Amino acid sequence: MQITVEPKSFAVIETEALVTYVFDDNDGPQGRVAELDKLTGGLLSRLNKGGELTGKLLETTLVHSPAGLKAARLLLIGAGKRDQFSGAILRKVAGVALRYLKSRSVHGLVFAVRENGGTQEFAQAITEGVITADFETDKYKTDKKKDKFIEGVAISGYSDAEKSAAQKGISRGRIIGEAQNFARDLVNEPSNKLTPKILAEKAEAMAKEAGLAVEILDEKKIADLKMGALLSVAQGSVEPPRMIVITYTPPNLKPTAPVVGLVGKAVTFDTGGISIKPADGMEKMKYDMAGGATMIGIMRALAALKPNVKVICVVPSTENMPGGKAQKPGDIQTAMSGKTIEVLNTDAEGRLILADGVHYAKQLGATHLVDAATLTGAIVVALANVNVGVFGSDQAWTDRLLASAKEAGEKMWQLPMDDEYREFIKGSFADIQNIGSGKGGGSITGAWFIREFAGDTPWIHLDIAGTAWNDDAKPWLAKGPTGVALRTLVQLITSL
Ligand code: BES
Ligand code: ZN
Ligand code: ZN
Questions:
Q1: What is the pTM of this model?
Q2: DSSP secondary structure string, 221-275?
Q3: Which of 271, 395, 275 is nearest to 345 (CA)?
Q4: Looking at residue 27, what is its pLDDT?
Q5: pLDDT higher than 90, residue 254
């Protein structure tokens, strides 16, 4: 999909569809919408009076052959209250425009920003919005809708002086949007098409193409390094595990600069193991590698954005299967760090593989850690599919993440990490146990388990179990993988 800047004024733009957005307030057409209203002989005012154009968030109003314009269609999208408008809303509005027009076999559109909207931030948001909206999960369908595609999007409303801001926003937005789709593509793969070995191959191919250093640890190397927690999960499967390590090093690295360690859970399928999950809905557990996919996608973006900070991405990958050699409840394992773990529930496997991932990232030199994982069903109970659960050991580091989430337009909510919760995972027969002792707080005890391996290194855990997968399509996004947390972490790293 081409994304360009359209310098012409409304009246002379020739396009299949001219798109802009209207606010939900009662002060009549303003700014560029007043201009459109005038050009079209009061069309917008009439639609508004008739109740067909209210500005309510994501409402769509389509007019064919609007008088006074050269555009074949005019699509107006509700942007909600003017004082609550943001880049995050604009990203959705642009996504709605793309999916609305694509489904109607329109192939090109011009998206016009409103008065005072000619910023880099807005061009980036529109670009991310249309690129992520364009993603479909029809890879394995044999009758793809061949006539439904958008070839070109032009962004208009930027003055000559604002043109370079538009270009910068488009270029950054494209890098981030495409990285997000890359991650979503991995998450969409079913487990028979994406084993740990195949995930590692795909990560390696991406890294090589992007010019990133990459090392794949196979089962032998994993055993040599005594990654006992990862191996304990893998032993129930005939598919061997992998530890994926991708490193981005900036050109002029100061030896004292922070080194970010990104650790992502990549369980390519989670049956629960011997503590097996119910059959109903188990097919969704192919997305239990979304944390890992997000981190790999981030590295793809960083290779192009070239921030001034070193980043080490560590992705432990395995299946969680109940094979004959599978670990059993009560088994005691020794993690790479030397800590012993009593595995009370084999379905709490994400924290086991992250234990070794986090320890290894520290050993490779990470000074600041972030992990992302579809870790707990309990986070869905707490925050539904709206907010990512955030847990941190260092408030300054966590605050930076929360600020980045705001800027990236991703909803995240911090949960507490009081010492009381740590007691829940104190072991009876080993140093720690992999589930809490029965008093609720399932997401927090999961987080505490990982924190045990982060030690004093500032660490953040993102529980994306509720947000990495959309059960229903949204007007701006296909059903399925969301690529959540990628934009926030790219923002965090590029702002360091
Ligand atoms: N992969 C699951 C968590 C999950 C649940 C992700 C629902 C997405 C949707 C994880 O490995 C798991 O099974 N967690 C258990 C932990 C429990 C045994 C302490 C859970 O949440 O039930
Ligand atoms: Zn599990
Ligand atoms: Zn899992």
A1: 0.98
A2: HHHHTT-HHHHHHHTTSSSPPEEEEEEE--TT--TTS-EEEEEE-EEEEE--TTS
A3: 275
A4: 79
A5: no
Q: For a pocket test of ligand 1, which of 232, 286, 347, 450 has the largest count of ligand atoms closer than 8 A to its C-beta?
A: 347
Both structure tokens of 418: 């009081």
Tell me how far the alpha carbon of residue 272 lies from the centroid of ligand 1, in angstroms.
8
Q: Which ligand is nearest to the CA of 267?
A: 3
Q: Does the pLDDT at position 69 exceed 90?
A: yes
Which residue do the tokens 């998450």 mark? Answer: 187
Q: How many CA atoms lie within 13 A of 427 on its CB side?
A: 18
Phi, psi for residue 369 in degrees, rounded to 5 = -110, 145
Structure tokens at 64: 């064919």
Instruction: Please tell me the distance between residue 270's alpha carbon and the centre of ligand 1 in angstroms.
Output: 9
- Ligand 1 lining (C-beta closer than 6 Å): 270, 272, 288, 345, 347-350, 374-378, 435, 442, 465
What's the CA-to-centroid distance between 348 and ligand 2, angstroms? 5
- The stretch 129-158 carries a mean pLDDT of 95
For the chain, give the mean pLDDT. Answer: 97
Q: Kindly state the tokens that stand for 157.
A: 């409303």
Residue pLDDT, tens place only, 15-33: 999 999 999 988 789 999 9
What does the pLDDT read at residue 401? 98
Task: Over range 328-344, report the average pLDDT.
Answer: 98
Average pLDDT over residues 249-256: 89
Q: What are phi and psi of 244, to 5 degrees?
A: -100, 125
Yes or no: say if 404 and 495 are a contact pair by the CB < 8 Å rule: yes
For residue 492, give the nearest of 337, 281, 217, 302 by alpha carbon: 302
Q: How far is CA 238 from CA 196, 317, 318, 320, 406, in A?
A: 11, 13, 10, 10, 42
Which residues belong to the active site? Answer: 277, 351
464-475 burial, b if ≥16 CB within 10 A, otherwise e? bbbbbbeeeeee
Question: Minimum-distance ligand to the CA of 377?
Answer: 1
Look at residue 482 in the predicted model and tell me its pLDDT: 98
